Amino acid sequence: MNSWFWSAVFHIRDIDITKRLDFSSAIAVLGFSLIVSILRTFDVQLEAARVMVSAPVLALVTPHVLYINFYELDYASDLAMLLEIYDFPPYGGYFDAHSIWHLATVLLTILWWSFIRDDAEFRTSSILKKSKTKAK
């Protein structure tokens, strides 16, 4: 929600601070999503192992956020997306590359939440099976 909020604010009011908040939030979401994906995919249970997975990602994400906020915010090097970099004039006055990119994020969000739902159902069924086994 934080990332979408700052993205909306940035697109309403394109100034330096809103751009930095938009980019920082997007980078944080990507880093957190990577951590959660790894932890859930490999079913990492031990706290020490979770830290060992999270620390390298945080070690890359944190300096990057600091870099774009306090050194150089280079749009082209941060977002290597063709629809973002190779912009074209609005087709029919409505759809440009950036708007198509945002449309694609809606589809990616649906896919992501589908994964989250399925994962939650799987985890819940696993926990229920374990509790039934222990009760016997």
Automatic annotation (TrEMBL):
GO terms for molecular function: hydrolase activity, acting on ester bonds. The keyword Ligase does not apply. It is a multi-pass membrane protein. The chain crosses the membrane at residues 20-39, 51-71, 91-113. One of its GO terms (biological process) is GPI anchor biosynthetic process. It is found in: Golgi apparatus membrane. One of its GO terms (cellular component) is Golgi membrane. The keyword Transmembrane helix applies. Keywords: Golgi apparatus, GPI-anchor biosynthesis, Membrane, Transmembrane, Transmembrane helix. PANTHER family: PER1-RELATED (PTHR13148), POST-GPI ATTACHMENT TO PROTEINS FACTOR 3 (PTHR13148:SF13). Involved in the lipid remodeling steps of GPI-anchor maturation. Belongs to the PGAP3 family. This is Post-GPI attachment to proteins factor 3.
